[in-house]
Amino acid sequence: MTLMERLYLPSIFKGMAITFSHIFKKTPTIRYPEQERPFAKVFRGLQVLNRDEEGREKCTACGLCALACPAEAITMEAAERQRGEEHLYREEKYAAKYEINMLRCIFCGLCEEACPKDAIYLSETFAPANYKRNGFIYGKEDLLIPNPLTQPEEYEKAKGERAPATH
Ligand code: SF4
Ligand code: SF4
User: Fold this and answer.
1) Domains recognised in the chain with CATH numbers
2) What pTM value is reported for the model?
3) Closest-lying ligand to the alpha carbon of 100?
4) 145 lines ligand 1 (CB under 6 A)
């Protein structure tokens, strides 16, 4: 081993040259949340429970989404629609409880594909960070889209580009 090699000087200069060559390159990091990275069109994020154009919940608690879910992340409890609740629920049966465990969910979109009612879809947003495990259990109140009749602005904001057509 030569003296220069023993001093590690060539390797040090080589390493420094690589470091300096990166200083003037465009940084790949984004200053989130001030800056937001555009997602791909196919990005699938947080689930939304959909309503129809009259603001009624579309979900009929058939359970197909839970059956299709490979992560067993969905649980629900069905209830019968009562007389006078026709303006709240589109079908005779509805989900009194609907939960998704975001720690299990792999955002595969199979729940959306399995749903015969266009009642659930994956939006362009994602589940925010949380310090507690319970914070990742999303209930119906977290997933249900705002009512388009009573909260039109919130509805438009929450809807996103991946929403299926209301009918
Ligand atoms: S996106 Fe996939 S893993 Fe997540 S709840 Fe739907 S079916 Fe389950
Ligand atoms: S979201 Fe769709 S598939 Fe899941 S229970 Fe409701 S209607 Fe059935």
Assistant:
1) 47-159 (3.30.70.3270)
2) 0.82
3) 1
4) no
